[in-house]
Amino acid sequence: MKAMTYHEPGRRTWEEVPDPQLTSPTDAIVRVDAVTICGTDLHILKGDVPAVEPGRVLGHEAVGTVVAAGSAVTGVEQGDRVLVSCITACGRCRYCRTGMYGQCLGGGGWILGHRIDGTQAEYVRVPYADTSTHLLPEAVTDEAALMLADILPTSYEVGVLNGRVRPGDTVVVVGAGPIGLAAITTARLFTPGHIIAVDPAATRLEAAKRLGADLLVGSGDDPEAAVAELTGGLGADVAIEAVGIPETFELCTRLVRPGAHLANVGVHGAPVTLHLEDLWIRNLTITTGLVDTYSTPALLDMVAAGRLDPTVFVTHRYALHDMEAAYQTFSDPAGSGALKVVLSRDA
After folding, report:
1. 256-284: b or e for each residue (b if 16 or more CB lie within 10 Å)?
2. Strand residues in the chain grouped as ranges (E)
3. Of 85, 58, 89, 82, residue with least CA distance to 68
4. SS3 331
5. What contacts 294, CB < 8 A, 6 or more positions away?
6. Would you write out the chain's pLDDT as a tens digit for each of its 347 residues?
7. How far apart are the first and last CA of the chain?
8. In the chain, which residue ranges form alpha helices assigned H by DSSP?
9. Domains of the chain, first to last
10. Which of 34, 84, 177, 200 lies 20 to 30 Å (CA to CA) from residue 74?
């Protein structure tokens, strides 16, 4: 089969690799019908995730069709259309039993495209298929479901829920890429008073406005002055960091009021200075997190009921074998205007 393979920082190849095989009774083999690219894949290609070894098939998000299932798999069977979650869960360990699937001790967590071969391929092996896939109702399209593999549960759990967004809050989202835009979308479920989007790219701020941001802070603007003016000098109730660089995290610490929540969602590849000499007295709650995907069933219900439309994040569509072109588009959001790209087997 063909797959997008990581070789070393800066080098990837769409190439022939061996077909995946069942290696455990709890595995399933899924034919990939739709797949996307994540900002984390770009972090890997920059060398920010050293656990990814040369030869690894990238990708951790997919919608597909089960073509084979191990003898212990009871929840899905050949022919089922499923969402492949970015998080794999054994379902039995201490963390899985408390819904912290991202910290799975049984060989799960974030492993697809990280520690085992991932989804940017024609087929993928999914360990613990019963607890790591979701059956899809006919009413939910492949594109809509694909956005539930990572960006929506990540922004919702690690950003909005960890940030304790409440009705009437002023929420500032720093970074209006796919994760930041998904945070804006899911924050609106809690009717905040104001949502502020901070990003240097005009196209992404336009997308943020379409998705519900009330105030846009772009290149050349002063985020601290804008937030202070809107809040009477208090600062935001919640800041969601959705970039993953030191400057944006430190900016978030300056945008919030005493007693606020700062939810870090961005993947950081470099150390960040935590200025406790300034922050210790401000009663801040700072959270970090890898998504657990415990919210995926609820989000899927909202999509099926027509309460949530994840397809608004999709800006570019490609055939599955146009993986290199899709990477070029996704890697240049300033030039391409890309948010999420979708690659489909039937495109």
Report:
1. bbeebbbbbbbbbeeebeeeeeebeeeeb
2. 2-8, 11-16, 28-36, 56-57, 62-69, 81-84, 123-126, 133-135, 170-174, 194-198, 215-217, 236-241, 256-264, 285-287, 314-319, 340-344
3. 82
4. helix
5. 99, 101, 153, 157
6. 999 999 999 999 999 999 999 999 999 999 999 999 999 999 999 998 999 999 999 999 999 999 999 999 999 999 999 999 999 999 999 999 999 999 999 999 999 999 999 999 999 999 999 999 999 999 999 999 999 999 999 999 999 999 999 999 999 999 999 999 999 999 999 999 999 999 999 999 999 999 999 999 999 999 999 999 999 999 999 999 999 999 999 999 999 999 999 999 998 888 999 999 999 999 999 999 999 999 999 999 999 999 999 999 999 999 999 999 999 999 999 899 999 999 999 87
7. 18
8. 39-46, 94-97, 129-132, 142-146, 151-154, 178-187, 202-210, 223-230, 246-255, 276-279, 296-304, 323-331, 333-336
9. 2-149+292-344 (3.90.180.10), 153-287 (3.40.50.720)
10. 34
| Dist CA 205 CA 199 (whole Å) | 7
Question: How buried is 133 (Cβ within 10 angstroms: 0-12 exposed, 13-18 middle, 19+ buried)?
Answer: buried
